[in-house]
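Quiz preparation item.
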C-alpha cells in the first residue's frame, strides 16, 4: 500500500491518558476545597464525574465537545449549591493545564520526529489535548479534533476532514490509533488504511470485522514500517 500521509490518535497512543485525567479532576477538586469548600463537599470527584456522565447522556449534541460538557458540569454543580456566578473560566484553565501535563511513552517523541521528517502528519483526536502545551506541535502539520470537525470518531466525517486538510486521498492515508472501534473501524469505514497501536498485545476483537492493515506494538514499529516504504 502507498502511504502519503499519516493521521495519528493522541490519548493512549502517544501517552497514557488516565493519569492525566485523574490529575486534572484532582486539581479542580483541590481548588474547590480551598476556595469553595461547600461545593467541594457536595461534589467530590466521584460525584462530579457522575454529574458529567449525566450531562453527556442528556446532551448527545455535545458528544464531540468534551470542553463544553465539562463547563456545563461545573456550572450546574455551583448552581446546585446556590451559586450562580461559577468561576468556570478559572476552573477550566486549572483542568486544562493539568490535563495537558501528560507523560509521553518513551518511544513516542523519537518516532514522531522520524515520521514527520518524511511524511505530512495530522493529529486526529476526540479529546482536547493541546499540542502546544504538551510541546509537540512542531512535529505535526495539522491538528484535527472532534470539537472543530463537528463530529467524533468513529464518524467518517472527522477522518474525511483530516484527509481534506492533508490534501491526500483517504486511501493513501494511514490512520494510527489504540482504539479498535474509534480508530480502526472508523478509519476503515472512511476509506483510510489502518494501523492499530496495540501496546498491550491484545487479540483483535473479531466482532469488529476484518483486522487492521497493521497491528503494531509501539510507535517505533510504526516509524520502522514507514521508513521501509
Ligand atoms: Mg486513543
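Solution:
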Amino acid at each position: 500500500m502507498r502511504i502519503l500521509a499519516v493521521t495519528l490518535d493522541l490519548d493512549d497512543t502517544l501517552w497514557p491518558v488516565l493519569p492525566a485525567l485523574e490529575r486534572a479532576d484532582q486539581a479542580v477538586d483541590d481548588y474547590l476545597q480551598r476556595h469553595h469548600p461547600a461545593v467541594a463537599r457536595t461534589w467530590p470527584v466521584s460525584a462530579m464525574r457522575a454529574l458529567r456522565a449525566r450531562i453527556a447522556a442528556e446532551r448527545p449534541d455535545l458528544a464531540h465537545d468534551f470542553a463544553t460538557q465539562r463547563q456545563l458540569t461545573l456550572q450546574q454543580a455551583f448552581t446546585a449549591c446556590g451559586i450562580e456566578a461559577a468561576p468556570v473560566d478559572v476552573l477550566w484553565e486549572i483542568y486544562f493545564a493539568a490535563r495537558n501535563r501528560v507523560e509521553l511513552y518513551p518511544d513516542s517523541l523519537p518516532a514522531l520526529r522520524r515520521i514527520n521528517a518524511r511524511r505530512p502528519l495530522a493529529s486526529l483526536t476526540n479529546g482536547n489535548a493541546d499540542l502546544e502545551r504538551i510541546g509537540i506541535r512542531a512535529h505535526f502539520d495539522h491538528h484535527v479534533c472532534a470539537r472543530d470537525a463537528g463530529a467524533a470518531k468513529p464518524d467518517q466525517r472527522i477522518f474525511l476532514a483530516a484527509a481534506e486538510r492533508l490534501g491526500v486521498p483517504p486511501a493513501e492515508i494511514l490512520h494510527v490509533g489504540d482504539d479498535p472501534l474509534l480508530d480502526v473501524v472508523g478509519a476503515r469505514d472512511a476509506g483510510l488504511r489502518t494501523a492499530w497501536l496495540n501496546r498491550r498485545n491484545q487479540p483483535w476483537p473479531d466482532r469488529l470485522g476484518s483486522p487492521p492493515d497493521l497491528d503494531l506494538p509501539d510507535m517505533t514499529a510504526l516509524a520502522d514500517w514507514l521508513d521501509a516504504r
